[in-house]
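Subgroup meeting minutes
Present: P.N., E.W., G.H.
Scribe: E.W.

1. P.N. recapped why we're keeping a running log of single-chain structure predictions: easier to compare across weeks, and new members can see raw inputs and outputs side by side.
2. G.H. added today's entry (146 aa).
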Amino acid sequence: MVIPPHEAANHALPFFITPPGSTDVLMVVAAILLIGGVLLTGVLFLRLHSLPERMAHKGKKLQFEIVAVLCLLALFTHVHMFWVIALLLAFIDIPDFLAPLNRIAGAAEVVAGTAPPPQEPSSAEPAPDAPPAAPPVSPSQGGGHA
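Output recorded in log:
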């Protein structure tokens, strides 16, 4: 049963005015758009916030952990300088100073004739095709100076 509008009401009502007892379509559409907009804004915010971390991870940077911690600090403390620092660190390649120094130390040990210290294995098992390591030369065998 459709209830007619009141006699005092304007007969040229806009489309968004609903009769009593029916569903307000405009409100339902507005609610869906509002919920979708809030979710989309949240996803975009979190994607933008994790941008430095994703950049450092993709570039396999040495400072990846520092960038990740700075991003988390910026997210939870709302200190935007942490995020800017993380973004700058994600763009910068920090040079590897340790590899050349290890090569220099190894070359100096070869020149001096001393055995290098045993290397820590990088994996749990040695490579199957690797030759067996030579035993270290002790000073009593004539390898050192007295």
